[in-house]
Amino acid sequence: MTMHCRFDPIDCALLDRWQRDLPLVPRPFAAIAAALDLGEGEVLMRLERLAATGAISRIGGTCRPNTAAASTLAAVSAPAHRVDEVAGAISAEPGVNHCYLREHAINIWFVATGPDRAHVDATLARTARATGFEVLDLRLVRPFNVDLGFGLEGASLPLPLPRDTDTAAIEPGDGAIIQALCEGLPILPRPYAAVAAALGRPETEVLERIRALSAAGVIGR
């Protein structure tokens, strides 16, 4: 069965082509705009609108599970009439990503991330309090290739080749950078500069560390 994108062609291109490989340059949205023959301002405006309407939950990276940071797969069982409310409360947590619905009694699934296990546990505890439901914590036992992308026309995007993870590349201070990427970049002309300023580090240094962590497989996409 063919699915049709409910967005206009430019939105579809933004959402499909940049699920991976966000440009690691000072002005990434300008680089995306150039690739799509658009202005940087239009790309920023469209991304802000897509974020405001919930079409995208964040723009950022994913960390290979339990390398420089901690993460877990989690789920709750919510009644149908409260699904939107509960999913919204879960998605509002800064350390939560990949929140999605499944056709099952345990129906809302998400990934909780943090700089360490205590941070993840605190996120799950807040989620339980905010939703009023018990949170199922499914810790990683054995990793598989989870770098999936789904095109808006219904087809899966091509999988990247599996990469080994070189945890020796992780340096002190990288955990804070990874956490910022997992929580999401601000939709600004220089998002990495905003992250760097929040961490009290130079933009060039933060970009250098992101490139190194990506090359080492610590940052998955």
Features:
4 strands; about 40% helix; about 220 residues; 8 helices; globular; alpha+beta; Alpha-Beta Plaits; four-stranded antiparallel β-sheet
Can you walk me through this structure?
The structure is a single chain. With 221 residues, the chain is α+β, with helices and mostly antiparallel strands. Among the domains are: 9-52; 70-137, Alpha-Beta Plaits. It is built from 8 helices and 4 strands. A 4-stranded antiparallel sheet has the order 2-3-1-4. The longest helix is centred in the middle third of the chain and has 15 residues, at 117-131. The chain is globular, with a radius of gyration of 18 Å. The mean pLDDT is 85.
Ranges where pLDDT stays below 50 over 5 or more residues in a row are none
**Rg on CA atoms, Å:** 18 Å
Indicate the CATH topology of the domain at 70-137. Answer: Alpha-Beta Plaits
Strand order of the largest sheet: 2-3-1-4
H-E string: HHHEHEEHEHHH
- The quaternary state of the protein chains shown equals single chain
CATH class of the domain at 70-137: Alpha Beta
Give the percentage of residues in beta strands.
5-15%
**Structural class computed from helices and strand pairing:** alpha+beta
N- and C-termini, Cα separation: 29 Å
Question: What is the residue-mean pLDDT, rounded to a whole number?
Answer: 85
Number of E-type strands: 4
Outline = globular
CATH architecture annotation of the domain at 70-137? 2-Layer Sandwich
Taking the sheet with the most strands, its summary is: 4 strands, antiparallel
Instruction: Report the total helices.
Output: 8
Tell me roughly what share of residues is in helical segments. Answer: 25-40%
